[in-house]
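Quarterly update, task 2.4: beta-D-glucopyranose-bound model.
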Amino acid sequence: MSLDAGDRHAVPEVVMPTPPIHKVLSGQKALVTGANSGIGRGVAIALGRAGADVVVNYVAGDEAADAVVAEIRTGGGKAYAHKADVANETEVQAMFRKMVEELGTIDILVNNAGLQRDAPFDEMTLEQWNTVIGINLTGQFLCAREAVREFKRRGVVPSVSCAAGKIICMSSVHEIIPWAGHVNYAASKGGIMMMMKSIAQEVAPYRIRVNSISPGAIRTPINTKAWSTPEAYQRLMTLVPYNRIGEPEDIGRAAVWLASDNADYVTGTSLYVDGGMTLYPGFATGG
Ligand code: BGC
């Protein structure tokens, strides 16, 4: 039997999984960068629900950050917002110092802050290039380095976790899918992939786990144009075999699992959470 586009759209109604009910991260302290919107917000709330205390990093938008903090506190978790630019070494170091003062240590870093500055390649400015590399890649380096320093200093605390620390880098399907018009963004995500694997290799003997989540199209402000009209959504679905857009909660659940001891033997891997976007959907009917 061959599938044509008509069959692909005759799919059942979307049924979303319910949020995790087990407090698999209780007693753990997490920092999520860029946590006042989009995927970062979804991850921060999911970690809070799973029992972690959460630092909600953001760079602009105090009210949105406060709202995430309030939501985590409603569920009983400790949380506070911290404004810092992840591309600024001094601000990053101050953020980690404050976290150690406030919460005692860090167990989980979710390196999420990121942005797009799209342009045709021959029109891309150095500023657009540097901004994207600075925040998406250098920002992850600066935060990961501070986290590893604290993980090594503290070591494993068996009553908290089997690991001395966990880092989750927010990458993208564009760490492997080339993306015309977004060369700076794709380069930053490809860089994250090798940075993540190299750090993972280096720190595994200290029982520090480093992994990436590589989301596909998730309903967030970064890609509103790709899903906000029925025509755009329809076009987007030609790239998504699972035939629905991803939600921040999809990434939140993946992050909870990767950060928890349920994933204790998992390090140096990219977990694609993309509804099959990386499965070359064009080949479902061709080739
Ligand atoms: C980008 C989105 C895009 C998605 C799939 C993400 O990494 O930030 O803008 O919709 O990849 O292409």
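Highlight for this quarter: The CA atoms of residues 34 and 58 lie 5 Å apart.
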